[in-house]
Amino acid sequence: PPSAVPAASEPAARPGPVATRLSGARVVVVENDAATADALERLLKNWDARVATFRDPAGVAAALRAGALAPDILILDYHLDDGARGLDVAALLREGRTAPLPVIVTTADHAPEIAAEAEALGAELVHKPIKPAQLRALLTSMLA
Asked: Which of 24, 67, 79, 93 is the most exposed place for a label (fewest CB within 10 A)?
C-alpha cells in the first residue's frame, strides 16, 4: 500500500506567507483625521492591499454612486465630522449586498455603548492608537 508519509524528495506543503491574504484586498478606509488616514493608507499599501481612503461619508456615497467601490473589508472611524458615524457608512455600503462585508470600527472612545453598537453590527472594534500587528492579524482572519 502507498505510504501516507511524503518521500524525502517531496517537501511538505507549507502555508504561504500571511501577506498573501492581504495582497490585492480592497480596503475602504473612512477616517476624518488626516494623519491617521494617511498612516493607515501607507500601512495597508505596504501590505499590498488596494486602498480607497475617504475623510467623510459624502465621499464614500459619491464613490458608491459612481460604481467605484467594491470593498472586501471596511475600516471605519466611529466618530466622523459633523456628528457622522462610521457605523452609518457601514450600513450604506452593506445596502443591497448579498455577500457579507466585514467591518472594523476604530475609536479612542471606550464607551460601552460603542462596543455594543459595533457588536450589533457584527463589526470588530479596535481602540486607538491602532497597533499594526493587531490590525494585520485581524484583517487576515476577517478576510480568510
From this structure: 67
